[in-house]
């Protein structure tokens, strides 16, 4: 039995699955990742600073010009998002995603924790009003009150809300199968969520490069869309 077939059997057999997803889940939708040779950070000095609370506060136009590069409004869910959403018809499914593109929600997944937020959720820092992302891409000043607009994403130097952490932990705790997909799984605190899985839960990782996880798991080293395309619903 190939490792892909073994992974497919685990997914079919599981009753409660939690997917922990990263940038590799969205690259088939033509959304670039961050750190690859063709990623968003390629050729940019101090990209983490450009996505930091310090940059937002002290050099807001530099932050704004960079964050606009992360928007890909024409992107659509791919087979990975679609299969995860379809699995909800027969199983208890949760998604905890590092991605800020909202594609899991767009695909129809109901139980989604956007761990790092959502680019398309924009609000005014002065009055708190929600504003359309379309307006934000035109100007980062709120027309109603003159306040600064920003996307509701977690920037470097910002903390996570207790509600987000609690819901993500709950999603991991309830699963009998954890599927890590499209992520190197090296960024904390996201990679620390695995600590909360049930002792009897199985862990499956699907990624183009092998992961180093300090506990038993099944590694499927391939593009995530290759495995998900083979899932029968």
TrEMBL record:
Coiled coil: none annotated. It comes from the Bacteria. Its EC number is 2.3.1.286. Keywords: Metal-binding, NAD, Transferase, Zinc. GO terms for molecular function: histone deacetylase activity, NAD-dependent; metal ion binding; NAD+ binding. PROSITE patterns: SIRTUIN. It is an enzyme of class 2 (transferase). The keyword NAD applies. The keyword Transferase applies. The active site is at residue 116. This is protein acetyllysine N-acetyltransferase. It comes from Enterococcus canintestini.
